[in-house]
Design goal:
Blueprint (H helix, E strand, L loop, with lengths): L1 H19 L6 E4 L2 H9 L3 E7 L4 H13 L9 E6 L4 H6 L7 E6 L2 E7 L4 H12 L1
Parallel strand pairs: 1-3, 2-3
Antiparallel strand pairs: 2-4, 4-5
């Protein structure tokens, strides 16, 4: 009988955890030029997040983005994380000059960019420019 109670309790806890944990509607991917071009060609809303592991602004931006994209309106958004330290050619091609840069696209059209900005309202406005 105790095994049944333990199993039932585990099931309840698992279901509560799935309700409490945020589900990210957006698709997070490591930046890849081919996948980025394909998403743009398909007309997808895209965010390029130029980040560095050592950058506190990048960490703050990432926390904000992950909270915001839990909303259903971002279910088609693709977030490409471009590594500032390892993907220099790619960020130069996107005309980025420093880590902590966020660039939004709707298809192949750039809809906005922010550099070194952590204000949640500004980041949300940038995300919204891609999904409208």
């Amino acid at each position: 009988m105790n095994a049944i109670k333990v199993s039932a309790a585990a099931l309840v806890l698992a279901s509560l955890a799935s309700v409490a944990a945020p589900v990210h509607a957006a698709d997070f991917r490591e930046f890849d030029s081919t996948a980025f071009a394909a998403a743009q060609a398909a007309g997808e809303p895209v965010l390029v997040d130029v980040h560095a592991w050592w950058c506190p602004v990048c960490l703050s931006q990432n926390r904000t983005i992950r909270k915001l994209v839990a909303a259903p309106r971002y279910d088609r958004l693709v977030v490409f994380r471009l590594n500032y330290d390892k993907q220099k050619d790619e960020w130069k091609r996107l005309q980025v000059s420093k880590q902590g840069t966020l660039i939004a696209y709707r298809g192949q059209t750039e809809t906005g960019r922010l550099a070194f900005q952590t204000d949640a309202a500004k980041i949300e406005a940038l995300l919204n420019s891609a999904v409208r």
